[in-house]
Amino acid sequence: PGKGTSHPPLCPPGIKCGGVLSAPSGNFSSPNFPGRYPYETECMWLIVVAEGSSVLLSFSHFELEYHATCAYDYLQVYNGAARDRGNLLGTFCGHSPPPPFSSAWHVMAVVFRSDRHVAKHGFAAAYQKDACGGQLTGLSGEITSPRYPESYPNDAECRWSIGGGGGGGPLTLVFADFQVEGGQGCSFDYVALFDGPTTSAPRLGHYCGSVRPPRTISATPHLLILFKSDFNIVGRGFKAHFYSAGECQEVFTAIKGNFSSPQYPNFYPNNLKCQWSIQLPPGYRVKVFFLDMELEGRSSLTGSCDYDHLAAFDGGTENMSLLGRWCGRESLAPVTSRSNQLLLVLHTDRNTAKRGFSVAYVGGK
C-alpha cells in the first residue's frame, strides 16, 4: 500500500462498541468497562424508544482523560439522531459525571471517543423510556407530559429542571398544547412553574384545565416545571418549548446596532423561536443590512423555506406586513421598514442547524 495516514477503525477488532438500543430501558458502557477503554476508539449508541416517549439517560460511573475543552477523550450526548451541533446537549470528560438528561423526543445519541494516549476506566450509563422529568441544559428544547399526546398516567410526578447550560440568561417557556384535569384550585392534576432550580424558589404559575398557560419568562437562569397527576381522571397533557431568552428575545432602541443568531458563528440551537424588535423614535425608518446568512435550505418538496427561516415584519408584531422570509445561503439586499419599528423572527425546527446570521441596522429619517 502507498504512504498516507490511515484512519483508525471505528472500533478496534474484537471490541463491542455502539449500536442501536431499542428496548424500553437498558444499560451500556465504554468498551472493556470497568477495565480501561482502548485507544483510538469511536462508538455511537443510538437510543430509540416509542414515538411520543422521551428518554431519561443517567451515568453511574464516569472517568475519562481530563482536558479543559475535552479535546482528547470525550463523551457527547445529542438530542436526536443526528450528530448535529444544534442538537448537542453537552461534551464531557474528566471525573465529573454528566447530569441526568431527558431527551426532547424519542431519540437520543451518545458518542464516545478516545485518542491514542491516556486511557481511563470509562463510563457506565442507563436509560429508560417515559421517564418524566430530568435535567435539561440545552439552550432550547421541548417538554411533554408522559405518553403525550396519549393520556398521561395516574399518580405521576415529574420535575424538569431547566438551566445551567451556559446560556446564563432568563428562560422563556411557551405551551403549544395544554389539557390537564381541572377543578378545585388545580389541586388534583396540575403544572407548577418555579423561578429557580427547586420548589423553594418563587412560584411563577400553577395551572390546570384546558386553557394554555401564558408565555412565562423566568427572572433567573433556572426554571423548574413540576407536573403532578392524582389517582383518577386524566387528560391529553401538555407540550411546551423552552429557550434561553438572553440571546433570543431582544429589543433595540438605539439608532444603530447589530446582532446575530444565538451562538453565532457556531451553529444555532434547534427548536427556537427568536424575536429581535427594533423600536426607534417616531419619524425614523429602520434599514437592516445582512452581513452573513446561512440557514437550513429550502424544502425540496415545496421549494419554500418550510424548515428554518428568518422573517422580517414592518412593525412590532408578526401581524404586520411581511418584508421578507429567507433561508439557506443567500446574500440579501438591505430591507427598509415603512414605520419606525421592524421585527426579525428566527424559527428553527428540530434538526439540521447551520451557522445562522449576522445583521446590522441603522435608523434614518
TrEMBL record:
Sorted UniProt keywords: Disulfide bond, Repeat
Xref: InterPro entries: CUB_dom, Sperma_CUB_dom_sf
The keyword Ligase appears for this protein: no
Cited Pfam families: CUB
Every CUB domain range: 17-130, 132-245, 248-364
Entry protein name: CUB domain-containing protein 2
Organism listed in the record: Leptosomus discolor
